[in-house]
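Exercise 3.2. Students should predict the tertiary structure of the chain below and write it as structure tokens, then compare their answer with the key that follows.

Predict this chain's 3D structure.
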Amino acid sequence: MPRPPELSPAATSIKGSVYSSVLHRLASYHGEVYPLNVGDTWLEPADGCRMEDLTVAAHPGMHRYAPPQGLPPLVDAVVERLRARTGVPLERPNVFVAGGATSGLACVVGAIVAPGDEVLLLAPHWPLIEGHVRMAGGVPVDVPFFGVAESPESAAAAVEAALSPRAVALYVNTPSNPTGRVVPRAWLEALVDLARRRGLWLVFDEVYEDYVWRGEHVPGIALAPERSFAVHSFSKAYGMAGNRVGWVAGPAPAVAEALKLSTHTVYAAPTAAQLAALRILEGAGDAWVARTRELYRGLGEAAADRLGVPRPDGSTFLFLDVAARLDGRGLTGFLEDAADRGLLLAPGPSFGPYPTHVRVCYTAAPPDVVTRGVEVLAALLGR
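Answer key:
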């Protein structure tokens, strides 16, 4: 049979399974499953903001396309929220509604990265950002940061040591997935100073901004509005991951370019999902977030205490070094042993150069399931 044409290196260089490579082992497992590998929540969205709460009678045209920038009332609500939280006088041209933060970040990267350009990623980092950079023909550069930097000066030095003339952007995820750490204001200010000196774009992934219980979340766009993108998500903040709605904010000319890419890929975020998101920003989500924040905090602290690691500052994750429990099979063997007990964990190499780490999401299943899954992990760790 004739061979097919070659595939794009931009696609073949991207990792496939980033959150678990051992799912197949569950085929022969018949006990309880503890899916702590994917960043999600067991909670349903706030009352009044679920798909079942929307009707065609109340929203004629809800199954039609929305404008590519987003439903105008939702765009306005996002602008109002950003003004209140950042103090930056943003307008409609500074914002568009994305098909989730994942799509929004891909469009941002596509708008600022040319083939051969380098994007510095504070590591460990959200796994899919590496693929976004590769899809744009760019080169992702891991910058060991969380757990390494100890001051504003060392934070900036870590990034500067990785800079080359080909660098065009710095990706900052705070609160951090996977470490649960929050980057302090002084550290962010040092990174902003460096970005201005070296002519870098700043890409702030702030999808967990509502889930901080230690330290302060500082909106990056407030520190450098002329060179910053901020990307947010209704998935993480409001339990709406299946709706695929988020937003992008930044300098108007740059946002216009990112919006072009969004238009040519997803065209527009789902209309019904945008209507639910609008209800959230009109106030229905406030009490939900307040309650959920305390639930998440309690789960994270309990899991950290049981596993003997520092309590998280925010987000919904713990990042553990399991090197002491690895045998000749390496991390793959540890993940297989966990899967054979029904426990799924995200592998450290998905987040950068971390061959002996695993990530735990302590909100991905109901609390009792998470607690039992943490006990399985504690037993594997001998704790």
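Discussion points: The longest strand covers residues 167-173. The first helix runs from residue 9 to 12.
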